[in-house]
Amino acid sequence: MATYNPDVFELHDLEHAKSIILTDEAQVSTHERWISETPYLLAQLQQWCQIEGAAQVLDFGCGIGRVSKALIEQSSAFAWGVDGSQAMRAHAVSHVNSARFAALSPQLLDAATLAG
Ligand SMILES: C[S@@+](CC[C@H](N)C(=O)[O-])C[C@H]1O[C@@H](n2cnc3c(N)ncnc32)[C@H](O)[C@@H]1O
67 CA distance to ligand 1 centroid (A)? Predict the structure, then answer.
């Protein structure tokens, strides 16, 4: 049985992190997947959730913030990116590069939500 190993996401090189998030598939590179699948995913998300105005979105397992970045660029939404990997959270802050984005650990999310 396969065992989940969170260390696979502790990647300090941004391009390596991207290649783990969207792996190369037959004939389709990480980069091609990134630019074709991200807008598709965002359109699906908008269809399901109709994110409007200054909505707050929780992007759990945000990685380097691929979805949060696209969402923030297309809307007035705020995004909270949560990721168990410290390296991914650090990438996310610089990749999204927006005052409407913050990255936090699952532990901090728990503390914040359990406190209220
Ligand atoms: C395949 S990547 C996807 C990243 C992003 N959602 C995207 O689509 O670009 C999965 C991410 O989820 C995070 N992750 C996996 N299990 C998690 C957990 N139990 N709690 C928090 N983060 C988790 C990993 O660290 C990794 O950054």
Answer: 12
Is 3 domain-assigned? Answer: no
Q: Specify the number of domains making up the chain.
A: 1
Q: Whole-model pTM?
A: 0.94
Pocket of ligand 1 (CB under 6 A): 9, 21, 61-63, 66-67, 83-85, 88, 106
Q: Find the CATH number of the domain harbouring 75.
A: 3.40.50.150
Question: Atom 11 (ligand 1): residue with closest C-alpha?
Answer: 61
Domain that residue 90 falls in: 13-115
pLDDT (tens digit per residue) in 1-45: 788 899 999 999 999 999 999 999 989 999 999 999 999 999 999
Within the chain, where are the H helices?
14-21, 30-49, 66-74, 86-96, 106-115
